[in-house]
C-alpha cells in the first residue's frame, strides 16, 4: 500500500503544474486625439555641440556658427555662457536635447568635461554621438 501522504503530495504537484496562473488578455480602450500630428507632439531637433581636441591639449567647442576654445586645465564657464546664449536666442529650454558630437581626435576627458559642465548647468537631455 502507498501511504496516503504520498498520494496527497502527488495530487498537489499535479494541480500546481496544471493550473494556469497567467491572466487573460483583455481589451484596453484608448482614445487618441483627433489631430495626432499637432505641433506639441513633434520632436525637437537636438542642438549640435561639436567638440574637437587641439594638438596642444586645448578643447574647441562649436555650437552653430559660434565657437569657444578652452585652454588645457581651464574651467568650462565660457562654454556654458555660450550654450546659455545659444539656447536663449534659439527659443530652447534646458530640457531640449543637446547632442555632443566628437571628432576622431577628441579625447574622452574633453567629452566628459563638456558633459559634466552641461549637467552642472541643469541641462538634462544630453545625447552622446560619434562622428
Can you describe this structure?
Strands 3-2-1-4-5 form a five-stranded mixed sheet, covered by helices on one side. It has helices at 4-18, 77-89, 108-120, and strands spanning 47-53, 59-63, 66-70, 98-102, 126-130. It has 131 residues and is α/β, with parallel strands linked by helices. It contains three helices and five strands, in the order αβββαβαβ. It is elongated. The longest helix has 15 residues, at 4-18. Helices cover 31% and strands 21% of the residues. β1 and β2 form a beta hairpin.
Shape: elongated
Q: What's the end-to-end separation, in Å? A: 78 Å
Name the beta content range: 15-25%
> How is the biggest beta sheet arranged?
5 strands, mixed
Q: What is the number of strand segments?
A: 5
Spatial strand order of the main sheet: 3-2-1-4-5
The assigned structural class equals alpha/beta
Number of helices: 3
Uncertain runs with pLDDT below 50, 5 residues or more? none
Order of helices and strands: HEEEHEHE
Helical fraction: 25-40%
Mean pLDDT: 81
Radius of gyration: 29 Å
